[in-house]
């Protein structure tokens, strides 16, 4: 082949239409986004149970030595989640999380600076079904939390029962996720220096039972424990609201006092999370039903911190005062940004 012929071929290849390749790449990226989201959903629902069953099964095989070694490690490492955990910047920066972010997409918006010399309790609202915004923004670096808030280390708090599950507990800790119990949060806010931000999804399982597309409501009126904890530790309160968190799944919401709602609440008390009857779309088609969430935008707004004094035994009226201040701050945050993210000026935040 002559040089001229080679140049002609290269020139011809460059002249080929790029549209098919662009379409193929876009399709592949979309599939990777779906896979990245679906793996988190399946991991959250099944990894703990699957890890437990696998560990028990391995004791009945020739691999029992490995199972015994892991169990010994599990016993030795049992209190680690309550003592700051074992986060991995490598895991938090996995490329997979950028695909997770881009599927919805998820955005993190900073409204005020946070001082590394202070500790914080972020109140995250609403819960949604899986709190995708909370996980992506605070359990990974996909939206650039550390760059937006230099010197602040976020720790997303979730059900303590998840940290009793082999393998799954380590997966959660690698993202800086911690148990939502008193010992764990106290450690982070009092024995881990400053610059810590514990993220609590305040509404919890009860709130998830009432989430639905287009619904702007939070369970907060009787949730004062996080305020009391902030006062005891002298940690500033930061309201956080995610527009779109409730839009990614459709849910059957049962009326109060019906048999189904009573069953849901009963199971919630037993297992710690709410058994919601929800659906998204299928893996291959958005027109079918499945476990994949709908790709609706989620925008998380981190509000202005409320300076909180340290009072080891705060009286009830002091807790009520800061709780009221927090509600006012959250409502103002919602009202300020609602029209920018698809809501009408007349829409209000319902607080229960």
3D structure, described in words:
- With 352 residues, the chain is an alpha/beta fold.
- It is 44% helix and 14% strand.
- It has 13 helices and 12 strands.
- It has helices at residues 3-15, 19-58, 64-76, 89-92, 96-103, 132-138, 145-148, 168-174, 182-190, 204-208, 225-233, 259-271, 316-337, and strands spanning 106-110, 120-125, 153-158, 178-179, 196-201, 217-218, 236-243, 250-251, 278-281, 289-290, 298-302, 350-351.
- A 7-stranded mixed β-sheet has the order 1-11-7-2-5-3-4, with helices on both faces. The protein has a 3-stranded antiparallel β-sheet with strand order 8-9-10, with no helix packed on it.
- A hairpin with a 7-residue loop joins strand 9 and strand 10.
- Helix 2 crosses helix 5.
- The protein is globular.
- Residues 1-6 have low confidence and may be disordered.
- GO terms for molecular function: diacylglycerol O-acyltransferase activity; retinol O-fatty-acyltransferase activity.
- It is a multi-pass membrane protein.
Provide the descriptors you would attach to this structure in a database record.
endoplasmic reticulum; 352 residues; globular; transmembrane; 12 strands; disordered N terminus
Question: Topology, please?
Answer:
Layout: H1 3-15, H2 19-58, H3 64-76, H4 89-92, H5 96-103, E1 106-110, E2 120-125, H6 132-138, H7 145-148, E3 153-158, H8 168-174, E4 178-179, H9 182-190, E5 196-201, H10 204-208, E6 217-218, H11 225-233, E7 236-243, E8 250-251, H12 259-271, E9 278-281, E10 289-290, E11 298-302, H13 316-337, E12 350-351
Parallel strand pairs: 1-11, 2-5, 2-7, 3-4, 3-5, 6-12
Antiparallel strand pairs: 7-11, 8-9, 9-10
Subcellular location: Cytoplasm, Perinuclear region; Endoplasmic reticulum membrane; Lipid droplet
EC number: 2.3.1.-
GO molecular function: diacylglycerol O-acyltransferase activity; retinol O-fatty-acyltransferase activity
């Amino acid at each position: 082949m002559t040089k001229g012929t080679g140049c002609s071929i290269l020139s011809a290849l460059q002249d080929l239409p790029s549209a098919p390749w662009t379409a193929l790449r876009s399709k592949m990226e979309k599939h990777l986004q779906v896979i990245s989201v679906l793996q988190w959903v399946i991991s959250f629902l099944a990894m703990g149970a699957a890890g437990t069953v696998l560990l028990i099964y391995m004791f009945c095989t020739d691999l029992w030595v490995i199972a015994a070694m892991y169990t010994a490690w599990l016993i030795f490492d049992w209190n680690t989640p309550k003592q700051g955990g074992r986060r991995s910047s490598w895991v938090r920066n996995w490329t997979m999380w950028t695909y997770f972010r881009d599927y919805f997409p998820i955005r993190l918006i900073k409204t005020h600076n946070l001082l590394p010399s202070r500790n914080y309790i972020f109140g995250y609202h609403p819960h949604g079904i899986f709190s995708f915004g909370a996980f992506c923004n605070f359990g990974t670096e996909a939206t650039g939390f550390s760059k937006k808030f230099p010197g602040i280390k976020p720790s997303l708090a979730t059900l303590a029962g998840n940290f009793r599950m082999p393998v799954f507990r380590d997966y959660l800790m690698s993202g800086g996720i911690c148990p939502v119990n008193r010992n764990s949060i106290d450690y982070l806010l009092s024995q881990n220096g400053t610059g810590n931000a514990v993220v609590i999804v305040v509404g919890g399982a009860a709130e998830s039972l009432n989430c639905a597309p287009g619904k702007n409501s939070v369970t907060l009126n009787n949730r004062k424990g996080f305020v009391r904890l902030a006062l005891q530790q002298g940690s500033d309160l930061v309201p956080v609201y995610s527009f779109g968190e409730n839009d990614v799944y459709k849910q059957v919401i049962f009326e109060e006092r019906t048999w189904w709602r009573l069953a849901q609440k009963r199971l919630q008390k037993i297992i710690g999370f709410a058994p919601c009857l929800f659906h998204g779309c299928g893996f291959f088609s958005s027109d079918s039903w499945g476990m994949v969430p709908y790709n609706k935008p989620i925008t998380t707004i981190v509000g202005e911190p409320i300076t909180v004094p340290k009072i080891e035994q705060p009286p009830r009226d002091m807790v009520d005062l800061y709780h009221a201040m927090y509600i006012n701050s959250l409502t103002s945050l919602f009202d300020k940004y609602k029209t920018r993210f698809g809501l009408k000026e007349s829409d209000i935040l319902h607080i229960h």
